[in-house]
Amino acid sequence: MPPVQPMLAKAAKAIPAGMQYEAKWDGFRAIVFRDGDEIELGSRSTKPLTRYFPEVVEALRTRIPPRCVLDGEIVIARDGRLDFDALLERIHPADSRVRHLAEVTPASFVAFDLLALGDRSLMAEPQRDRRSALTAALREATAPVHIAPATDDVALAADWFNRFEGAGLDGVVAKPPDLGYRPGERVLVKVKHERTADCVVAGLRRHKSGPVVGSLLLGLYDGEGRLQHVGVCASFPMRRRAELMEELAPLRMDSVAGHPWQEWASEEAQAADRLPGGPSRWTGKKDLSWLPLRPERVLEVAYDHMQGDRFRHTAQFRRWRPDREPEQCTYAQLEEPVGYDLADFLSAGQD
């Protein structure tokens, strides 16, 4: 019975040997509970997702066993690759909007684990046995319900890691074949793509604990010479946060006047450019204020991949680049992965 916390993964630099390997999907983690006509979708935090994806619920009703619990990912694919922005738009308070988007940008469900079937819990069963049970239970499933491709061949997993990033896949997850399902525990291994970029540091936010750096606001220049906000760099030890506040003090501006992002509070400007602090239903009443810095320092950061024109996740500090000029920090430096249609991966073979 819900809720069930999903089993999680810890990061690693390389794909480990001797595991079962799957893609790391860039979507919403979801645990599906079905008992006859009753279907519930639980999020990673166990909050319900059911009302936001009515087309997924209907698809599951005709494509999965009448009593089961599945672990998987809700994804949206457009133009042959995963589209996380379209997925975010689906979490909307208006039912009419949800129904409209269900038709315009329908989602799919990719199953990668089976936790219960009929009256039997499979959570104590080893991963390899749950995988066999999953493929048997969903052998008749058709789109938009899919079984996640999996392999025990580490070389094939490395090929997936390198080849299908262009389809929007986020990396590889390695699962110990003897492991039972352990809700909420980081017992799997994830290996994500990482590359680096030189960015302009154009602002900062204070840490919630006091007058030290919470995050650095990063920018890249577009083809028209406008500085676009592409993300933040935020993971620092507390001592380093204090040092950064002191280091960046000479760049502090008294106000946003004259700053490339001086119109950040304008809805019209937010629609035209990528600026920090844009209000949305995701931020709610969160303090979006930031301190402007003269855009004169360049920072090298590591990132996994882009989501449109911004970093998908928080970037990681690597080093200052005093040998770089801010104007050199453009989108042109970013590596563009070779594009592959997501359907190619879903048909790449299972087991």
From TrEMBL:
It is an enzyme of class 6 (ligase). GO terms for molecular function: ATP binding; DNA ligase (ATP) activity. It comes from the Bacteria. It catalyses: ATP + (deoxyribonucleotide)n-3'-hydroxyl + 5'-phospho-(deoxyribonucleotide)m = (deoxyribonucleotide)n+m + AMP + diphosphate. Residues 109-226 form the ATP-dependent DNA ligase family profile domain. Gene3D superfamilies: DNA ligase/mRNA capping enzyme, Nucleic acid-binding proteins. One of its GO terms (biological process) is DNA recombination. It holds the Pfam family DNA_ligase_A_M. Its EC number is 6.5.1.1. The keyword Acetylation does not apply. Keywords: Ligase. NCBIfam families: PRK08224.1. Belongs to the ATP-dependent DNA ligase family. This is DNA ligase (ATP). It comes from Actinacidiphila bryophytorum.
